[in-house]
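Render this sequence as a predicted structure.
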Amino acid sequence: MSVGTSRARGSRDARHAPGPRQGDLAELGIDPDELPDGLVVADEHGHVICFNAAAERITAVPARDALGQRLEKALPLEDLEGRRWWQLTDPYGGLAIRRRQPERNLLLPGGREVLVSARYVRGEATGPVRRVVVSLRDTEARRRTERSHAELIATVAHELRSPLTSVKGFTATLLAKWERFTDDQKRLMLETVDADADRVTRLIAELLDISRIDSGRLEVRRQPVDIGAAVGRHIQAYVAAGQPADRFLLRIEQPLPALWADPDKIDQVLSNLLENAVRHGEGTVTIDITATASPREGEGHEAAATSVTVSDEGPGIPEESMNRVFTRFWRGSKRGGTGLGLYIVKGIVEAHGGTITVGRASQGGAEFRFTLPVAAPAYLT
């Protein structure tokens, strides 16, 4: 009998095993080989009767070698302390009320980690085990997530150390030698402490934003937003800080549809994009605000949206980096900061139902364009 036939036969047997969910796969017309996770099923005697394609990939064991083997031989798992897993759990013995084994990290031969959970199928409540259904998942995706979290913690810790060291140093110096400093010197130290405290606050806000974006809990409180006035306020702040007024060119296409968005979060988006253009670009920073079609799928072209484009005349972003601009920790060459700003910008825009893209401006610099649907809150529609 061929491998494919053996696996198919085993899969059919497993799908029709007695139990509370018997026949589910057959009724849905699903082949076990179509499942994304590894599926291994053993019969009442502990022999493997199903070993799907994902299980082959995860374990590197061909189905033809696993089918018909004892479960502990086909799937020789050990816990992290080197103990034989099937001897410890004894699925066919022990308490008759057991129904499952929760997911946990186990080791395949060679030390490869795999996430394993098991279900015990019984013909009746406390009867003997008729099937052991094992689910296998590769740990690579989880390791990537853990590495990302570790990088985030390391980055934020590094960025926090500098301002906190400064705050501690200046406050300790002022407390110990207050009378030795002039009023101007005291003011300078306190202004530095104030600026560093603002930096710490921004870092903590970024960390909270990342958490909300990753968990899908970023709230958007929609209000009427004058996007042109919002951009104008940011430009005025840069001019007041010493940037030449003629470095900025604001062009607004009239009429614009009424935009309903979260004003604080839109300010955050504009702040990040304009700061990138000012700090890392060159020449004139151009901001174009236009009316356009909604970026949301399923809406016709009559659905209005507002588009904002921020471009500069600097060297731009290398073509090979374009697809990484909105990922965590992307800084590009000679860029400071945490590398989280554009990741947060993308999360905010998408939370509004909008889209954001990056490209090369006609002047040769970087060009960021985000589009927001202008839909009013549900209670007004």
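Summary. The first helix runs from residue 3 to 15. Confidence is low (pLDDT under 50) at residues 1-24.
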